[in-house]
Design goal:
With about 190 residues, the chain is an all-alpha fold. The protein contains nine helices and no strands. It starts with a helix and ends with a helix. Pfam families: Ank, Ank_2.
Length: about 190
Amino acid sequence: MQTKCATTLLIAFLLFVSVQCENKNSRVDLEITDNEGKTAIFHAAQGGNVEITTLLIDHGARVDRTDKKGNSVLHDSVLYGNFGVTELFLKSGAKANLRRFTDGHTALHIACQLGRLDIVKLLVEKGGADIEIAANDGSTPLAVALRNEHIEIADYLQTKQNHTRHMGKTNQKKIEQTVKRDESRRMKDREEL
């Protein structure tokens, strides 16, 4: 019963904020926090309402905001499994590699833990999430996926890792070839002198 009451109260609050934001003469402080350090945009992220979240962003709510534990609005949208809001935050400049204070987890760690392949792909492909970033305990997103037996996510991350490493090796070879070619040219130029 308490959760239902809190949800109803949250919806009423968000509707109030949306009405105030639409009224050009009213000014609403969107950075007011609750006792956990969460602003209205956190609650919109948790609720998954893209329209209200968009309205808050359009009226100045910060997408880089963190609460007292270091959770960002992106962490919360992923934690609550809200793909649309997560996508909106990434498009609005949220940092995919922001780490929580408490454990060093990124939004990607959370998505891997929850088994959300759709959000994992979104974070990596649209948000530029680092697939090798380690949490405070040293666990990477891949390790988190494996620990939680999310094999499809682990396969996806391994494929991305292999592609990145291959591209790194390819780029390294190109750099080495360029250096050798430049050295050969310099040697040739010296011989001609």
